[in-house]
Amino acid sequence: MPRPLRDPQPMLAQAIADWGGRDDLWLFGYGSLIWRPEFDFAERRPAWVHGWHRALKMWSRVNRGSVQTPGLVFGLLSGGSCRGMVFRVPAHQGLETLRRLWLREMPTGVYDPKWLRCNTPEGPVRALAFTLSRRSPNFTGELSDERYRHIFTHAVGRYGSSLDYARQTLLELRRHSIHDAALARLVALAQEAQAQSEAPADCGTPPATVYVPGSADTKNDNPSPQPSSGSSKENT
Predict the structure, then answer these.
(1) Under a CB-based contact definition with an 8 Å cutoff, are residues 210 and 177 in contact?
(2) pTM confidence score
(3) Which of 62, 68, 69, 102 has its Cα between 20 and 30 A from that of 120?
């Protein structure tokens, strides 16, 4: 386990104090919390936030990679907007849920927990989200396509590979009609690299066409305008 960047307990105490414990607890999920929340909730709603976007730009040296070959997980970076899900936890379960979340998400104190205004079809809610600072040593900065291919090919941690993590998140986002073009492009890069590595060296035939999730053949029987799930720069 990497050494903690910060003591996570004061941040947990602050989150508990900001919540107050009287009302139900709302949590915003934008990555693995959507498909593996690991806590009980009374309600789940689609939600979007402005001023933050989902990005696969956080180093993972335990869960999806190792110290020798760091992997990647999502962070919520400032700028743009993001579509995800909010979960309502009954007030009497909120304290235990926060403590369990801290063990999962904050063992090294890497995230900056923030209370964000999350818009939902039933109205806005104030939800806790795990954001990532660009000043964090776990922020990757800009990565080349070749670096992403290398990570997707080699990075594996205690919960599996970075590629499996990215694929599972993309599938779950699509299941909830959340389209993330940047993530779809990265997964397509990995699929292309896999296809090239598995092709016979003397084949001489061009690689098969790679299907990009979220492409034009996806059908929507009731199209309607949706908020952007990321900034124009990140395209997430």
Answers:
(1) no
(2) 0.81
(3) 102
